[in-house]
Structure formats: C-alpha cells, structure tokens
Specification:
alpha/beta; 6-stranded mixed sheet; Structural Genomics Hypothetical 15.5 Kd Protein In mrcA-pckA Intergenic Region, Chain A; RNA-binding; Rossmann fold; 5-stranded mixed sheet; 3 domains; 13 strands; Tyrosyl-Transfer RNA Synthetase
RNA sequence: GGGGGGAUUCCCGAGCGGUCAAAGGGGUCAGACUGUAAAUCUGAUGGCUACGCCUUCACAGGUUCGAAUCCUGUUCCCCCCA
C-alpha cells in the first residue's frame, strides 16, 4: 500500500474516534482490507449528510481497499434509535423496497464495481436477516448481549431518560447492526466498519459480537457529523428542506446553489470532508478565502466538484446555465424545453392563451395569478418599488399589459419578484 | 361563589367620541449597499374598478350627526378573595 489513508483522513478531520488509534494506520497500510459502511433506506434517495460516508468509502477504495456498501433493508424495518429523540414510524415494506432500489442505484455511481480485487460490493442485510428465525436469533446473537451493557449505550440511555421512551423494537436495533458486521466478516472478510459519530455504539457492539461469536478482532472508525459552524446539520436549505442527491428531489441547479451559498467558516471543512481535492489545492483555497473572500473561490469549487460528482458533467453545465439565467440578463429567444430545464424548481401556473389577446394581461393580474403577490395591491407596490420583472426585464409601469410579444419562448413567460422569487406562466390553448 | 382586569390589523403592543386603515416594535416584502453572505440604510405593509371608494379593532345589539373609543348582553382569557 503506497497511500497512508489514515494520515489523509486525519488531515481532513474525518476521524472522530477509532477503536485502535495506535495500530490502525499500520494495519491498513500493510495490506488491502475490506471496509463497510451502512446506509439507511429511510428515503428513496440519499442526502448530503450521507455524501460524506459515500466519499469515505470511495477514499478507502482509492487507497486500495475493498469498499462494502450495505443498504439496510432489514435494519430499516426496525429503525435506528441513535441520534433520534423519538420513536420512528415504521416504513411500509413496499416503500422500503423502493427505497433500497433507489439507494443502491446512487451508491453505484460513487464506487468502482469492476476493478479486480478491490471491486466494490453492494449488499442488503435483508438478504441474510430474513432467514433468521426469532428463536435462532435470540440463541445465537441475543445471548451475546448483556443487557446492562446495552443500557449503557448513549443511544439507549438518552432515550430512556426522556419522555419519548424506547420500544423493544428499537432497543433491539443494535443487535441487528452488530450481526451485520459479523456476517460481513464471515462472508467478505470485512474487518473495519466506518460510520458517523452517532454510530459508535452500534459499531462497538458489532466488534464485541465478532469477538464473542467468532473470536476475531475487527475495527471501527467514526467520522464527525456534517455540521456547520453553529452546530446545525449541513444539508438543509434556508427553507429547511433537505438537499438530496437525486435530481428528482433536488435539481442540479439547487444542489449547486446550496454549495455556492455555504458560509466561509464551513467551506473549509466541506472541502476536506466531501471533495477529493488534494491537500495543496485545499490549502490554497483556504488562503484565497482568507485573503479575498469576495471571490468565493472555495464555494465555487465546492459547488462545481460536488455537482460533477453527483450529477455529472451535464449536471454542472445545467447548473451553470441556470445560474447565468437566474442572475443574468433578459430572457428571450428560448424554447419551452430549455426554460423547463432551467426552471425545474420554479412554480408555474397555466393560463389560457386567450388572456394575452386583445388588451393583453395586466402585469398586476399576472403577478397575482403566478402567486408572486397576494393581492393586486401588493403587486402594485412591488412594481412601484422596482421589484417586478418579466423575463428579467424590470417593469416600471403599473398599467403595463402583457401580450404574446412578451413570451420568452413559444408559450412561457418568466415572472420575478425581487431578487430571486421566480414563477412561470405557461399559456395554453 | 364574590371582586377586578383584558380581548386591537401576521405577532407583540399604543390608542382624549371626530384629524384612525389605526403610534411603536417585531416579522414580512421591495430598493440601495455587498461576496447570490452577514450587518446596515431606505421605503412599503387591509382590499379595490385607486387623488376616490369599501371592509376592519372578540360577537350581537344600542346611544350619537359621528364610535376601536360610551351603554347593554354574549363568549373567551387573566388576576385577587372564598
């Protein structure tokens, strides 16, 4: 092994805790190992919180190890109490199955499944857990879990002392995840589990179980959670919606914008945690951020790198094109299709084409119809204050009428209120 | 059960019977500045067929030329005494 992954992860700040600080580096450098990270199928897409973990697997693979991505088809049926303050609602089996498929597809795009010995492996713990009978599980696995130790885990302790309590189901969660580790150890010689810092309890439970059941020594590493300088989770937009990896849930443009808007204080950690930029590149970005913050080269690079990783080169192009439009000049001479791609996240409303005929459609009415103003009075104010735009061209006249000559494409008109609130009017026959 | 106070426009909160669509603050929206940031500054903030008109101050009545402001009843809230 010619790459010291522990040194790299340490420099990036990606190591929160390990089960063996002294020997892990040497152990990983001595030969190729199998490493596993689990992903929870609580939705049909992963979000940026999981991006850090996906990248970790990628880093291990690049360093010459074999990554195993586990999708929790079984554990997802139970619900991990770690870091959750309340009991979760159980997902239906159908939606769980759909979620597993969606997540598997995303994982595939981050790892190399065809590179010989270190080809990535994708597993679903439902495949082995389903075969267990309750009695067998209690005898083989449960017997190895002293309840007093389980009660000592943070995830359990915090819930027991709170109002919310904890069901027997969630209490049992750690047995399942612990057994996953043992199973992967048997099947794939997996000796290292990685996870977020909230996974420490589950990981050590697996290590204990492996020792008891198989007499083998395995290891664990946890990464920090992705939080901003104020301690809040990174990966939520200002409106509070999660930033997802799937383009159906979060368009490439919004994804890109999210990173462009990351605060200066958070840009450094994000570059280290999430990108594969070299130490030199990141440090020169740090410098640029300190000396000429207004250029925001860190944020731009971050947006570009991550959008490329998640949405590919076409995603970057789409995000760039949309960015130019959103912050740019007048919108004319586009086709409906182009506008639809650029404004995927923008609300739109259909109006009959006849509204544009004759007198034309009053601007105030247009803004109210589009939902950009609650009343014509409000629309009037916006226009008077210079905050109303049609196709990115400011409208100054309260009595202005819109006709078919104001269409930005065959049938679409782009309205904007203020700096960034957009809405589309689609005129149909 | 007795006594007292209160209910105001998105929120908090002011409001001598006329000059009240209703002070002030918050929030929100727009503008300027800026790094698509933060902070700051400015303006706006019931509706409309808009130099005017209409509907609002818990609800229902009443007094008055005129009521958010006075009277009566109703509902809800708070405080004190039992």
């Amino acid at each position: 092994m010619n790459f010291d992954i522990i040194a790299d992860l340490t420099w990036r700040g990606l190591i929160h805790q390990t089960t063996d600080d002294q020997n892990l580096a040497q152990w990983l450098n001595s030969r190729s190992r199998s490493v596993y990270i689990g992903f929870d199928p609580s939705a049909d897409s992963l979000h940026v919180g999981s991006l850090l973990q996906l990248m970790l697997l990628r880093r291990f693979q690049r360093a010459g190890h074999r990554p195993i991505a586990l999708v929790g088809g079984a554990t997802g049926m139970i619900g991990d109490p770690s870091g959750k303050s309340e009991e979760r609602n159980l997902l239906s089996v159908d939606s769980l199955r759909a979620n597993v498929v969606g997540i598997e597809r995303q994982v595939r795009q981050f790892l190399d499944f065809d590179c010989g010995d270190t080809s990535a492996v994708l597993v679903n713990n439902f495949d082995w857990m389903r075969k267990f009978s309750y009695l067998d599980f209690l005898r083989d696995v449960g017997k190895n879990f002293p309840v007093n130790v389980m009660l000592g885990k943070d995830s359990v302790k915090s819930r027991l002392s709170s109002e919310a309590g904890l069901s027997y189901t969630e209490f049992s969660y750690m047995l399942l995840q612990a057994y996953d580790f043992v199973h992967l150890n048997e099947q794939f010689d997996c000796e290292l589990q990685v996870g977020g810092s909230d996974q420490w309890g589950n990981i050590t439970a697996g290590i204990d179980l492996a020792r008891r059941m198989r007499g083998t020594q395995v290891f664990g590493i946890t990464s920090p959670l992705l939080v901003d300088s104020e301690g809040k989770k990174i990966g939520k937009t200002a409106e509070g919606t999660k930033v997802w990896l799937s383009s159906e849930r979060t368009s490439p443009y919004l994804f890109y914008q999210y990173w462009i808007n990351v605060g200066d204080a958070d840009a450094g950690p994000c570059l280290r945690y999430l990108t594969e930029l070299s130490r030199d590149e990141i440090e020169s970005l740090d410098e640029s951020r300190a000396n000429s913050p207004h250029e925001r080269s860190s944020q731009k690079r971050l947006g570009e790198e991550l959008t490329r990783l998640v949405h590919g080169e076409t995603g970057v192009a789409a995000a760039r094109r949309a960015t130019d439009i959103f912050f740019g000049a007048e919108i004319t001479g586009f086709s409906d299709g182009q506008l639809r791609d650029i404004f995927t996240d923008v609300p739109s409303i259909e109006l009959p084409l006849s509204r544009l005929e004759g007198e034309g459609l009053g601007v105030l009415d247009a803004f109210v119809e589009a939902g950009l103003a609650k009343s014509k009075g409000e629309a009037r104010r916006t226009v008077q204050q210079g905050g109303a735009y049609v196709n990115n061209r400011r409208v100054a006249d309260v009595d202005a009428k819109l006709t078919s000559s104001d269409l930005a494409s065959e049938s679409v008109m782009v309205l904007r209120s203020g700096k960034k609130r957009y809405a589309l009017l689609r005129f149909v026959r």
